[in-house]
Amino acid sequence: MPADHPAVTPAPRGRRRSVGAVRSEASAAAILDAAEAILGEGGTAGFTIEAVARRARAGKQTIYRWWPNRAALLLDVYHRQKGADGVGYAGGSADDLARFVRDLWAFWRDTPAGRGFALVVAESQTDPAAAAALKDYFAQRRLDFAAAVAPPDADPEAVGVVHDLMTGFNLGRLLTGRIDDDPATIAAVARLLADALDRAGGVRPGSPSP
């Protein structure tokens, strides 16, 4: 074989070929599909990068190139399923915020992905990789919240603080096992959050976050 045509080792039969550092949306979707299936079938106990790689017929290094750890992959699965279930920011009124909190708690209670999120939150207290993944996740949700509920002239830091207050309330309930539906408390908190958004510069209706 000529020197300028080096031999190429064929990809193993049945395995998706890597496209290098460029993320292939088809391969990423296949990996997320496999991760969702594993989470749905066996919960978090069987959710490993190795298991996802086998199910997706992908190399572990491909997964690690796009998701640096299990927590990051779990969070992507969680956000994907949450969006598919219609759990997202729909506006900044008290009713909108209360509906979001109730939908979120139900998702946490009733779905494997919701329980996977609780695991990431717990692991983040002792695992720096999980903590970093969760920090990145919440940073993006902060931006999504502002885009959905606040007009362009609102104080972005004040709107971000409202998001942080809502997140703190939700996580506090999650970590103490108090996410059964509690309409009165949720409505009271939602009114406080909506009032804080008004003070930040107004509220606009938005569309659910992706």
TrEMBL record:
Claim: NAD is one of the keywords in the record: no
Feature: DNA-binding region: 48-67
Residue ranges of domain HTH tetR-type in the record: 25-85
Superkingdom of the organism of origin: Bacteria
Gene3D superfamilies referenced in this protein's UniProt entry, alphabetically: Tetracycline Repressor, domain 2
GO MF, one example: transcription cis-regulatory region binding
Keywords, ordered alphabetically: DNA-binding, Transcription, Transcription regulation
PANTHER family, sorted: HTH-TYPE TRANSCRIPTIONAL REGULATOR RUTR, TETR-FAMILY TRANSCRIPTIONAL REGULATOR
Name of protein: TetR family transcriptional regulator
